[in-house]
Write a structure and sequence with these properties.
By secondary structure, the protein is α/β, with parallel strands linked by helices. The chain has helices spanning about 45-50, 70-80, 95-105, 110-120, 140-150, 170-185, 195-200, 220-225, 240-250, 275-285, 300-305; strands spanning about 5-15, 20-30, 30-35, 60-65, 65, 80, 155-160, 190, 205-210, 215-220, 230-235, 250-255, 260-265, 285-295. The protein has 2 domains: about 5-225 and about 300-305, 3-Layer(aba) Sandwich (Rossmann fold), CATH 3.40.50; about 230-295, no CATH class. The two termini are about 20 Å apart.
């Protein structure tokens, strides 16, 4: 059985006395991993340690069968990295910048030049490749960074807040490219983002960090609570009379991340039933338009994970085959 794409084994990163990553253990088998956490959660420190750019205080990170701290150069030949901050070189055109990144990754002059043209065309910058990157828009600069991260044909790609600051259309286009990489180009992706909708649209696995510790990890579909114990309800007319009756009956009422009205039984109360909800609606003279069982979103999962105590990582799913490092 092939090695997992990414393994962190009790990985700890410190900056002086501050612990940025605290005994993090995770195994990622492939596809797209969404890396979630609030500012300061340790996401960027984890990525840097995984790339061998930061030496861990203890533990280890293994990418594509290579230990990052010991084989950092080999890791970086097989891994692409798109940092959050701007990293283009002033004065260079798009093709010059991406070619230079290819040379840094070990490509010959001819191969770096050829690949830079191919990657700039792939990310939608064919007609802008001879313009200076200084003059690119925000979205174009992000796409140029992506081309630079892909120029050496990596097996694994790290994206750090890639859609931050993009307009809605540019975000959709960028995420469509990420989907194409994982589904059609056989490139595994670790996507670090605070935009949960972006992660939910492209990732199959998720890792939630808080203060450098794992709060949740595994396939998104297995982590989401499909029966959260409540109902999402839509009414015809005013909501407030029905809400008063529900709360008088001891039920909990709130709006979720999708702005739906959610009704749940109070702690220790009997489970809700559809007939009981209709009976309460009749008593408040409310017409129910829709009553469906509540299902968690990724945002619900994220908030639930942050409220829970730190715990060990659940068992990882079975690894998928990964190409041998080239």
């Amino acid at each position: 059985m092939s090695e997992p794409v990414l393994i962190a084994d009790s990985l700890t990163v410190r900056y002086g006395k501050r612990v940025a990553v605290d005994r993090l253990s995770v195994s990622f088998s492939g596809g797209c991993l969404g890396l979630l956490g609030q500012n300061g959660a340790g996401k960027s420190s984890f990525l840097r340690a995984a790339l061998g750019l930061v030496k861990p205080a203890s533990g280890r990170a293994v990418l594509l069968g290579l230990e990052a701290a010991r084989e950092g150069k080999r890791v970086r030949r097989n891994v692409g990295y798109m940092p959050e901050r701007e990293c283009h070189i002033p004065g260079l055109t798009g093709v010059e910048f991406v070619s230079y990144c290819g040379r840094l990754a070990g490509l010959s002059v001819a191969d770096a030049r050829r690949r830079s043209h191919e990657m700039l065309a792939y990310v939608g910058l064919r007609d802008e490749r001879y313009r200076k990157v200084d003059d690119y828009s925000r979205g174009m600069k992000q796409r140029a960074k992506l081309a630079a991260a892909l120029v050496h044909d990596p097996a694994l790609l790290f994206l750090d807040e890639p859609t931050n600051g993009l307009d809605p259309r540019s975000r959709r286009e960028f995420l469509a490219t990420v989907q194409d990489l994982t589904r059609n180009k056989n490139i595994h992706v670790v996507l670090s983002s605070h935009l949960l909708q972006d992660v939910e649209s492209v990732a199959n696995d998720v890792l939630v960090l808080d203060r450098g510790q794992v709060r949740a990890s595994g396939p998104i579909q297995s982590l989401l609570a499909r029966d959260a114990g409540g109902f999402a309800i839509k009414v015809a007319g005013e909501w407030e009379p029905f809400q008063r009756v529900l709360e008088q009956a001891g039920h909990l009422v709130h709006r979720d991340a999708r702005h739906q009205w959610i009704v749940r039984p109070a702690s220790g109360a009997a489970p809700l039933s559809v007939p009981a909800l209709f009976a309460l609606a009749r008593s408040s003279r409310t017409l129910l338009r829709e009553v469906v069982p509540e299902e968690e979103t990724l945002e619900d999962l994220f908030m639930r994970a942050l409220s829970a105590p730190a715990a060990g990582t659940p068992a990882a799913p079975s690894p998928t085959p990964v190409a041998e490092p080239r």
